[in-house]
Specification:
One of its GO terms (molecular function) is olfactory receptor activity. The protein has a three-stranded mixed β-sheet. Helix 1 packs parallel to helix 9, helix 3 packs parallel to helix 7 and helix 3 packs antiparallel against helix 8. The longest helix is centred in the middle third of the chain and has 35 residues. The chain is built from ten helices and three strands, in the order βααβαααβααααα.
Length: 317
C-alpha cells in the first residue's frame, strides 16, 4: 500500500443521527433538556448523600461514584453532539476524537466494574448482615472504588492507543454520533481482525467478568432471600437490591449484545440508538431508579424538603 495513502487524517466527520435540519433542531432541544436533567439529578443525589448522615454507608458511597461516572460519561458525548446538531460542518479534530473515545470507553468500563462492586456490597448486606460493617469497612470500599476507576481507565487507554495507530487513509466519515470504537475501527484501510479480537477479549475481561460476578452475587442473594421465613423479611431483603438489580439489567444487556461479537454486531442505526441509550437515557434513569425504588433515599428527600420548608417558613415570618 502506498505510504501517502496511510497518512493520519487531521479531523473526522460525524454523520450523527439525521441530516434533516428540523429533526436535528428537535433532537437538540430534547437532548439538551435530558442532559440538564442528568447533571441536575445526579448532582442532587450526590448532594443528598453528602448531607444526610443516614446515607453515609458503602452502598451510597458507590452510588456517589456511579453518579459521577454517569455525568462524566454523558459529558464526554452529549455537548459535542448538541453542537453538531446546530453545525453545518460536523467535524471533530483527531485529538478530540481520540480523547472522546478514551473517556467514553473508560467511563463505560468503570461503570461495569462499579456495578459488580455494588453487587458484592448487596451480597454482604443480605447474606452476611451481622458482619456487614466489619467486611465493608471504609478502607475496602475505597480500594474497590479505586480498582474500578483504574481498571476501566487502563483498558480504555490500551484500546485507544491500538485503535488510533491504525492507518485511516482518506477515510474520515464516522457513521455514528460519537467516536465509538467499532465505528472508528471500520475506517481503517487495513485488516482489523486483530483489533476486533482485542475488542472482544477486553469486552470479555471488563464486561463479562464483572457480569459473572454480579450473576454469582445475585444467585447467592436470591438463595438467601428464599430461605427467609417471613414474607415481610423477604420483601425487605428484595427491596435492598431492587434498585441495583434494575440498573444492572439495563446497563449490561445492550452492551453484551453490541460488543461481545464485533463481527456480527447490530446495524449502524442500532449501534447509534444503543449509544444514545447509554449517553442520554441511562444517566437520566439511574438517579430516578435509586430515588423511586429506594426507601432510604425517599426518606432523605422528605427530610431535606421538610427542613427547607421549615427554613422558608421561618424566613417568611
Amino acid at each position: 500500500m502506498d505510504t501517502d495513502n496511510q497518512t493520519w487524517v487531521k479531523e473526522f466527520i460525524l454523520l450523527g443521527l439525521s441530516s434533516d435540519w428540523d429533526t436535528q433542531v428537535s433532537l437538540f432541544v430534547l437532548f439538551l433538556i435530558m442532559y440538564l436533567v442528568t447533571v441536575l439529578g445526579n448532582f442532587l443525589i450526590a448532594l443528598l448523600i453528602r448531607l444526610d448522615s443516614r446515607l453515609h454507608t458503602p452502598m451510597y458511597f458507590f452510588l456517589t461514584n456511579l453518579s459521577l461516572v454517569d455525568v462524566s460519561y454523558a459529558t464526554s458525548i452529549v455537548p459535542q453532539m448538541l453542537a453538531h446538531f446546530l453545525a453545518e460542518h460536523k467535524a471533530i479534530p483527531f485529538v478530540s476524537c481520540a480523547a472522546q473515545l478514551f473517556f467514553s470507553l473508560g467511563l463505560g468500563g468503570i461503570e461495569f466494574v462499579l456495578l459488580a462492586v455494588m453487587a458484592y456490597d448487596r451480597y454482604v448486606a443480605v447474606c452476611d448482615p451481622l458482619r456487614y460493617s466489619v467486611i465493608m469497612h471504609g478502607g475496602l470500599c475505597t480500594k474497590l472504588a479505586i480498582t474500578s476507576w483504574v481498571s476501566g481507565s487502563l483498558n480504555s487507554l490500551m484500546q485507544t492507543i491500538i485503535t488510533f495507530q491504525l492507518p485511516m487513509c482518506a477515510n474520515k466519515y464516522i457513521d455514528h454520533i460519537s467516536c465509538e470504537i467499532l465505528a472508528v475501527v471500520r475506517l481503517a484501510c487495513v485488516d482489523t481482525s486483530s483489533n476486533e479480537i482485542a475488542i472482544m477479549v477486553s469486552s470479555i475481561v471488563l464486561l463479562m467478568t464483572p457480569f459473572c460476578l454480579v450473576l454469582l452475587s445475585y444467585i447467592q442473594i436470591i438463595s438467601t432471600i428464599l430461605k427467609i421465613q417471613s414474607r415481610e423479611g423477604r420483601k425487605k431483603a428484595f427491596h435492598t437490591c431492587a434498585s441495583h438489580l434494575t440498573v444492572v439489567v439495563l446497563c449490561y444487556g445492550m452492551t453484551i449484545f453490541t460488543y461481545i461479537q464485533p463481527r456480527s454486531s447490530p446495524s449502524v442505526l442500532q449501534e447509534k440508538l444503543i449509544s444514545v441509550f447509554y449517553a442520554i437515557l441511562m444517566p437520566v434513569l439511574n438517579p430516578m431508579i435509586y430515588s423511586i425504588r429506594n426507601k432510604e433515599v425517599k426518606g432523605a428527600w422528605q427530610k431535606l424538603l421538610g427542613q427547607l420548608s421549615g427554613l422558608t417558613s421561618k424566613l417568611a415570618t
